[in-house]
Amino acid sequence: MPPSSLDTAQADGRAGLAPAAVRGRAAVCRAVAARYAGASRWAQGYVRGKLRSDPATAALLALGAARPFGRVLDLGCGRGQLGLALLEAGCATALLGLDRDRAKLEEARAAASGLPAGFVEGDLLDPGVAFPEADTVLLIDVLYQLPAAAQRALLPRAAAAARRRVVIRVFDPGRGWRSTFGLAVEQLGRVFRGETGRTAIAPLPLGVLAGALREAGFARVAIAPCWGATPLPNVLLHAEREGA
């Protein structure tokens, strides 16, 4: 992946979008959902649902409205709706998404028309895939899906690409009944998707993740619930470098 990809995305897109605080989250979500009109009906429903009800959408838009993210690298971006929401809200100046699912990336590219965004196919776990520098790196619902060793290998690479901030949504294994319920939901999801052969879900403790980020040079690491009205154990880690 060329390191100039974020520069190219910014040059190709538009600027001057109103911040989320002015436009309102509902308006931003409607605008992004409309961009997927050419996708399959299932994909349209998925995107609308994630934008409207996923607590990560509200959390990221609030963080970005308080202090914009600048150039964003979204690792494991899927269909790209979260990053596009940040652009539509004026919370980011450019977006580069990386994912290994070609079909989802095609939908993301079509939806991003006119925005300073690019999407690249690649395997996050391949050490030969370079992560270009960005002001902010996102890892949303990615780490806990991986084997423990892969989580430990990926996090330092992601952190090294972030000039200012890293935002990660993870599964907290220490939330009691929430964690028990969340594990059951994830296992059932794998059964329905025919993924029973995958390595068992083994989310790393939050202390391990926060420690790795501090070792990577992030002076401030905040942890906050990100489960909304759901019974899931999802939390948001927001790490910042000194002076960021």
Helical stretch tally: 10
| Overall mean pLDDT | 91
The first-to-last residue Cα distance is 26 Å
Q: What would you give as the CATH superfamily?
A: Vaccinia Virus protein VP39
Largest sheet: 7 strands, mixed
Helix content: 40-55%
Shape: globular
Strand order of the largest sheet: 3-2-1-4-5-7-6
- The strand count comes to 7
CATH class: Alpha Beta
Low-confidence stretches: 11-22
CATH architecture heading:
3-Layer(aba) Sandwich
Give the ordered list of helices and strands: HHHHHEHEHEEHEHHEE
Number of domains: 1
CATH topology: Rossmann fold
Structural class: alpha/beta
The percentage of residues in β strands lies in 15-25%
**Cα Rg:** 17 Å
Protein name: Methyltransferase domain-containing protein
Domain Methyltransferase: 72-161
Organism: Caldovatus sediminis
InterPro entries: Methyltransf_25, SAM-dependent_MTases_sf
Can you describe this structure?
By secondary structure, the chain is of the alpha/beta class. The protein has one domain (5-11, 19-240): Vaccinia Virus protein VP39 (Rossmann fold), CATH 3.40.50. The chain has helices at residues 5-12, 20-23, 25-34, 41-53, 55-66, 81-88, 102-111, 148-160, 177-192, 206-215; strands spanning 71-75, 94-99, 117-121, 134-140, 162-171, 220-225, 234-240. The protein has a seven-stranded mixed β-sheet, with helices on both faces. Helix 7 (102-111) links the parallel strand 2 (94-99) and strand 3. The model is unreliable at 11-22 (pLDDT under 50). Pfam families: Methyltransf_25. Residues 72-161 form the Methyltransferase domain. This is Methyltransferase domain-containing protein.
